[in-house]
Structures are given as structure tokens and as C-alpha cells.
Specification:
446 residues; Beta-Lactamase; 5-stranded antiparallel beta sheet; 11 helices; 54% helix
Length: 446
């Protein structure tokens, strides 16, 4: 409707101007003074009004675009004065300004909300311009952790603490890393993560710093308590009977010395010494078992074919399976699947899981164990060991990865714990699914 009114007004003014020009032309042809004078005045007047009619809209648009250029969205255009089409144009401008102001207010509210959240988290966060070093954002936590006042440029840190600047801002890390920084002559353990991002033509670096000193101390303390508890229990279980038996034998020998008629039963003495020797060997075995659990600390990574890995494991287990009715099979989604692993350690994990599965299927009529390799939606390789055995009771699922925990009479209790440690070294994890009476599935995710 506005467009039609504007077109009608423009057309009317053009026709009136054309009529005035016709009158002027008639006067010039007929040499009519009144026609010439009237046509000239009318043409000039109508031309001026046409110019004003057109220019007012362009002036309004220039004003609007100027306001947009300088982000002045508080500008208000009159909706009650001037032609109807111009008022409608002003109304459109005002509507745009209102929308942009609402968006800006929403963004500002979100920014304040995010600001408050980042201030509350107990993690240091700082973002700065890579070229100029200007701080885009730094929360109170990082200032508190680094014991620094508020600063606007990272070169402030470079001047005051060059070593700290080199550790935090002058070194690029591709993954989260724990480092030790020195503050007030004290060493502080922190976890640092960083990433670079682009905003238009500027590059920024985001650094996230987390003080893990207290957490590490607490975890270390808890780990020591658990370790000492387990070791004390195991050692006491071995030492108590040794001490008791040694005391009994000592009493027999002492009685024999004081009373010559009392003879030492050599069979009893031999049996007692044999028991002491056996329990001592058990204690030594426990110590060796603990040492084997703690010595796996690094990997010898190599690219290994999953097919070759499965073939080696199958060959190794054939003598064990020769006198057992267990059906062991292997499969994979892709024949050329590769893994970057320490093949010796992963073979150890898979063999341990398969041997556990053999024990779990002893009471099954048709025992089956299936080992397969797949890739999930994220492209990560999954190795699975599935069996149709007795399953794992719900109440002990949380305990099976604890060192020295075992449900077997002859088990050392380190197999699954060692497997978990090996997967952690590979930056992967081991997961369990089990239903009593149905079977168990262990998944190694790399």
C-alpha cells in the first residue's frame, strides 16, 4: 500500500511538471507572455517540489544508515509527520532499531550471565590477542592462582615474571598438561589447557588453568590409605599364622630342653617348618605381584594390524584351549583395521580377559567366547571380549578393578587392575557389561 501511494504521488508530480512544460512550450511557440511566465514559474515550482519529494526519502535513508554505521540504535524517526509513505518508512526504521536494541540487550545479558559464571568457577581462565597481547578476558580465579593484580596485557607478566610468562603464554600445548609453576618460592602443580581461535581477522589464545595441588594431595593420600589397608591385610594374613606356628614350635623345643624325657616330634617340626616356608613363599609372591602391578609405566607404541593381533592371541591360547570345550572365535568390521598400541601389553590384557571368560563359562553347556573389533560413530576402535558365562554379580562389579580383589581361590586379583592401568596408559578405558546367568562383555576403547 505504501509503495502504491509513493508511486501515485510521484506520477502526479511528474504529470503536473509535464503539463507546466507543455504550457511553457506553447507560450514559446505562440510568443504568449502569460503562457511563458506562467509555464516557467509552474515548471520551477513543480521541479522543486518533485526534488523535495524524492530527496526526503533519501535523506531519511542516509540518516538511518549513518546511525547503523555508528551503531546508534537509539535514534528515533518521526512516525506522525510528513507524507504517509515517509511515515511508514520511519516506522520500518524504528522497528529495525528496536529489534537490534533487543538483540544487543539479550547479548549483553548473556555476556553478564557468562561473566558471573566464569567468575564463580574455581578454574582460571584468560583469553588474549596473540599479536598485541591485549587481554580479552581474565577471571578472578586466574589472578588469585597466579597471585597477580588485574592487568590489561600479558606483557605485564613477561616483565614481572619472565619464567611464568614462558610457561603459561610462550609455550603452546596440543593437549591438557600438568606443569609445576613457582609462586612465592613455592611449587604449585597446575593443569593447563589452551586453544587458539579466530575472531574476524584477529587471533586469540584461550588458556585454562586449574590448581590441582590439593586434589593430587588428597588423591595421593587416599591412594596410600587404600594401598596400606590392602597390604596390611594381606601381610597380616600371612604373618599371623607364621608367628603363631613359630611360637608353638619354640615352646616345643624349649620344653624338650628343660625336660630331657620330652622328645621333639620331628614330623611335627618338619610340618611346622614346611608351613612357615609355604606361608613365607606366599608373602614373597604377594610382594612380587605388587611389583608387577606397579612397574607398567610407559608404552612402546607401534602401528599394529588388528587381524595380526587376533592371530597371535589365537595361536598363544590354542594349547590352553586344547582340552577345554570352549569355542573361541574372532571377528572384525574391517579387515584392514589398524591400532597404534603397545602390542605386548594389549595382548596381555586380551589374554587375561579371555582366560577370565574361560573360567566364567565352566558351568555352561556350550561355552562360547567371541572377540571382535569395531569402530564407533566417532571413529574410535573398540575391542570387545564377550562370553555366555555365569556373569558378574551386581554387588561386586565396582570391586573387580581394585588391586588384589579376586573371587577365585587361586587368583592374585591384579589381572583386571593391571588391564585398567594399561588402558589408562593408552589414553583409553575398559568398560564392563554383565548380566548374571547371561554373560559378560568387556570393551576396550582406544
Amino acid at each position: 500500500m505504501t509503495y502504491k501511494r509513493y508511486t501515485a504521488g510521484l506520477l502526479l508530480r511528474v504529470l503536473l511538471l509535464l503539463a507546466a512544460l507543455v504550457v511553457l512550450a506553447f507560450g514559446l511557440v505562440k510568443l504568449n507572455t502569460y503562457a511563458i511566465l506562467g509555464g516557467s514559474l509552474a515548471s520551477i515550482g513543480l521541479l522543486y517540489f518533485l526534488h523535495q519529494f524524492l530527496i526526503r526519502r533519501f535523506v531519511a535513508m542516509d540518516d538511518f544508515f549513518e546511525a547503523v554505521k555508528y551503531r546508534d540504535f537509539s535514534r528515533w524517526f518521526s512516525e506522525k509527520h510528513g507524507p504517509q509513505d515517509l511515515r511508514n518508512l520511519h516506522k520500518g526504521f524504528n522497528s529495525v532499531n528496536k529489534t537490534i536494541k533487543a538483540i544487543n540487550n539479550e547479548r549483553q545479558a548473556q555476556f553478564v550471565y557468562l561473566q558471573k559464571i566464569l567468575e564463580m568457577v574455581d578454574v582460571g581462565i584468560i583469553a588474549y590477542n596473540l599479536d598485541s597481547g591485549a587481554i580479552l578476558w581474565a577471571n578472578e580465579s586466574i589472578l588469585s592462582t597466579l597471585d597477580l593484580p588485574a592487568f590489561k596485557n600479558i606483557h605485564f607478566v613477561e616483565k614481572r615474571r619472565p619464567k611464568l610468562y614462558e610457561e603459561l603464554f610462550d609455550t603452546y600445548r596440543t593437549e591438557a598438561t600438568s606443569i609445576s609453576i613457582t609462586l612465592k618460592n613455592e611449587h604449585l602443580k597446575v593443569l593447563i589447557s589452551e586453544t587458539v581461535f579466530q575472531v574476524e581477522e584477529d587471533a586469540f589464545k584461550l588458556v585454562v588453568l586449574q590448581n590441582i595441588e590439593d586434589t593430587l594431595n588428597q588423591n595421593e593420600s587416599d591412594a596410600w590409605k587404600k594401598l596400606l589397608s590392602v597390604m596390611t591385610h594381606e601381610i597380616m594374613n600371612s604373618i599371623a599364622p607364621i608367628s603363631s606356628l613359630a611360637e608353638t614350635l619354640q615352646q616345643h623345643i624349649a620344653a624338650s630342653k628343660t625336660n630331657q624325657e620330652t622328645e621333639i616330634d620331628l614330623d611335627d617340626l618338619h610340618a611346622g617348618i614346611s608351613s612357615i616356608k609355604k606361608r613365607s613363599e606366599g608373602l614373597m609372591k604377594f610382594a612380587k605381584t605388587y611389583r608387577s602391578l606397579s612397574k607398567v609405566t610407559h608404552l612402546n607404541l607401534e602401528t599394529v594390524s588388528v587381524n595380526e593381533l587376533f592371530t597371535n592371541i589365537n595361536d598363544l591360547l590354542q594349547p590352553t584351549l586344547a582340552d577345554k570345550p570352549v569355542e573361541l572365535s574372532f571377528g572384525m568390521d574391517q579387515p584392514e583395521m589398524l591400532l597404534e598400541i603397545d602390542s605386548y601389553l594389549i595382548e596381555q590384557v586380551l589374554i587375561n580377559l579371555i582366560l577370565n571368560a574361560i573360567d566364567a563359562t565352566k558351568m555352561v553347556a556350550q561355552p562360547k567366547i567371541y572377540v571382535n573389533a569395531t569402530q564407533n560413530a566417532k571413529g574410535r576402535v573398540l575391542l570387545k571380549v564377550l562370553d555366555n558365562g555365569s556373569g558378574i554379580p551386581e554387588e561386586i562389579k565396582e570391586s573387580i578393578f581394585i588391586p588384589f580383589f579376586s573371587t577365585k581361590k587361586t587368583g592374585s586379583g591384579i589381572g583386571l587392575s593391571l588391564s585398567k592401568q594399561i588402558m589408562t596408559l593408552h589414553k583409553g578405558k575398559i568398560q564392563l557389561k554383565s548380566e548374571p546367568g547371561t554373560g559378560t562383555e568387556f570393551t576396550l576403547q582406544f
